[in-house]
Write a structure and sequence with these properties.
By secondary structure, the protein is of the alpha/beta class. The protein has two domains: 3-215, Spore Coat Polysaccharide Biosynthesis Protein SpsA, Chain A; 227-399, Hexapeptide repeat proteins (UDP N-Acetylglucosamine Acyltransferase, domain 1), CATH 2.160.10.10. Strands 1, 4, 5, 6, 8, 9, 10, 11 and 12 form a nine-stranded mixed sheet that branches. Strands 14-17-20-23-26-29-33-36-39 form a nine-stranded parallel sheet. Strands 15-18-21-24-27 form a five-stranded parallel sheet, with no helix packed on it.
Length: 401
């Protein structure tokens, strides 16, 4: 039986401030940690034995998944005590693997069909996909279904095919891992162990039909959109008279949707929330547990994590709001430049023409604040009333007029 090893030890520095209090793999997408979506998809392909390599904030992973029985699988954990690279992370599972195994990064969304395609390939195999910005990834060259070359984040990539971080290996991998040396950044890189396979012409390429990489916070919105496409309606909470639900909408137990609220699916709302009255929630929105989305709110294409409140006369579009945030009445987030060009956040091009803000945990806004496109607001910030917020705001900042 094929086992599955998932690398889930990293912090995900490019995901800050969202990873200040949680590992990257536990950031919710469509109201579930991204790692949960991955485990469920792999389980549905017939694999039920998992080894998770954990490290940064590992308690969050262990607490959520336990021994795996609640998810219909068996999970063992291996701790990577120091972040010494992906090669070192895989070496830690040496005593837990006994044959062919699926190996993948825990910070992506994959389809069941693509996982099955890799499992059906001869070992060793590597999942690849096309990218319109390959210089941001490891690039591969392929001939007749065999990987012929690999280069890491080249300014002049030799192809538009990238390493998707999904592998099928056998036990021979460990003999190659034991021979690699630290890279220029001082880490043991898993990709260095691919070179003997490439030289021997034995590394098979499997083209993936879809792939959602979670490199930066705005990538969460794309993954959220993809996952919500297949959402089915399920109402477990209370829907008052005068509420309009259009399309696929899920409402969790204990949630009350008050009169005058209009919800366009796909939209998922967690448990014990208060929605409305007279709220307008538009498609591709995920609202966590214990949230308050109140009177005269417009919310679209966004992720709102647990215990956050957007209660009075607010607009939030194309944004990621972490846990424990509170918006003062009239506070709004802009999500479109006047010139309609792609929006940058923290000096990085999001490649999105519509993008609002990334807001960390426990951020409190006063009344009538304005948040500019591409703003990144750190954890535990306090924003005084009537402030204009733009750019990157560090953790624990106090912003005044």
């Amino acid at each position: 039986m094929v086992q599955c090893v998932i690398l889930a030890a990293g912090e995900g520095k490019r995901m800050r401030p969202l990873t200040g209090s949680r590992p990257k793999v536990m950031i919710p997408v469509a109201n579930r940690p991204m790692l949960e979506h991955l485990i469920n998809a792999i389980r549905d392909c017939g694999i039920n034995e998992f080894v998770l390599v954990v490290g940064y904030h590992e308690a969050a992973v262990r607490h959520h998944f336990g021994d795996g029985s609640d998810f219909g699988v068996s999970i063992r954990y291996v701790t990577q005590k120091r972040q010494r690279g992906t090669g070192d992370a895989v070496l830690n599972v040496l005593s837990h693997v006994n044959g062919d195994f699926l190996l993948l990064n825990g910070d992506m969304i994959l389809s069941r069909e693509d996982i099955k395609a890799v499992l059906s390939s001869p070992s060793p195999a590597l999942g690849i996909c096309k990218s319109d910005h390959p210089r941001d990834f490891g690039v591969v060259t392929v001939k007749d279904g065999i990987i012929t070359g690999f280069e890491e984040k080249s300014e002049n990539p030799k192809s538009d095919l990238i390493n998707a971080g999904l592998y099928l290996f056998n036990y021979d991998l460990f003999s190659h891992l034991k021979l690699i040396t630290p890279s220029p950044r001082g880490e043991l890189e898993l990709t260095d162990a691919l070179l003997p396979y490439i030289k021997a012409g034995s590394l098979h390429a499997v083209m993936l039909s879809s792939w959602a990489d979670m490199g930066s916070p705005w990538d969460l919105l794309t993954a959220n959109e993809v996952l919500l496409v297949s959402l089915s309606s399920c109402i477990e909470g209370e829907i008052e008279d005068g509420v309009v639900l259009k399309g696929a909408v899920q409402v969790g137990k204990g949630t009350v949707v008050k009169a005058g609220t209009y919800i366009e699916g796909p939209c998922v709302i967690g448990k014990d929330c208060r929605i409305g009255p007279h709220a307008y929630i538009r498609g591709a929105t995920a609202i966590g547990d214990n949230c308050h989305i109140g009177h005269s709110i417009e919310l679209k294409n966004s992720i709102v994590m647990n215990h956050s409140n957007i209660p009075h006369f607010n607009y939030v579009g194309d944004s990621v709001i972490a846990s424990g945030c509170n918006f003062g009445a009239g506070t709004k987030i802009a999500n479109l430049r006047h010139d309609k060009k792609c929006i940058s956040a923290g000096g990085v091009n999001t490649r999105r023409k519509k993008f609002g803000a990334v807001i960390g945990d426990d951020v409190l806004f006063g009344i009538n604040c304005s948040v500019n496109v591409g703003a990144v607001i750190g954890n535990r910030c306090r924003i005084a009333p009537h402030c204009f917020v733009t750019g990157v705001i560090s953790d624990d900042s106090v912003v005044k007029r």
